[in-house]
């Protein structure tokens, strides 16, 4: 796999609340940080765009259990848990996309009314490569919407983790059926 100028690497929600010790910790999430940094280095060297999204909810967000939502309180705007993973190394020119900031609406996809589709099209981006968290939630929704928007869409399996194993397996099947390229990565890569 090698990146080019008309590619975008999109890192979804690599935030402390989704990692060990966080409010909605995902198994193995910390392990993907070095792998993501490696992808960022490769993308940057090739002149590909780097995008990082962050889940950024107001207190009392509709997705929280206290309001009947599916999740514990997580990624509250400005909190420790909403910060990017301490190891994540983003280039200065990375585009940060904030999502989930409306009290009564959730946004799983980085393309859901964020303007990112238009920005990437404007830049001539043809392929998008997705990694980060969580495979069965925000990576899933983003990948499906990327295909709809006409991008050649790749998901880097060794640089993502699902919230549930079953959800991850179902997501991989769904993505494959939707024409998304699921990259299994190098079997010799010990960071996978
Ligand atoms: C996410 C659950 C709740 C995600 C965000 O980034 O995948 N998952 N909010
Ligand atoms: Zn959320």
In one word, what is the shape?
A: globular
The assembly state of the depicted protein chains is single chain
Q: Segments where pLDDT lies below 50 for 5+ residues?
A: none
Number of strands: 6
Protein name: nicotinamidase
Domain Isochorismatase-like: 8-182
EC number: 3.5.1.19
Organism: Methylocystis bryophila
Q: What would your notes on this structure say?
A:
There is one protein chain. This protein is of the alpha/beta class and 192 residues long. It has a single domain (7-183), classed as Rossmann fold, CATH 3.40.50.850. The chain is 25% helix and 20% strand. The chain is built from 4 helices and 6 strands, in the order βαββαβαβαβ. The protein has helices spanning 32-45, 116-122, 135-148, 165-177; strands spanning 7-12, 49-55, 95-99, 127-133, 152-161, 181-183. It has a 6-stranded parallel β-sheet, with helices on both faces. Helix 1 links the parallel strand 1 and strand 2. The longest helix has 14 residues, at 32-45. The model has no long low-confidence stretch (mean pLDDT 96). The chain binds pyrazine-2-carboxylic acid and zinc ion. Pyrazine-2-carboxylic acid binds at residues 12-13, 55, 71, 133-134, 137-138. Residues 8-182 form the Isochorismatase-like domain. This is nicotinamidase. Keywords: Hydrolase, Metal-binding, Pyridine nucleotide biosynthesis. Pathway: Cofactor biosynthesis; nicotinate biosynthesis; nicotinate from nicotinamide: step 1/1.
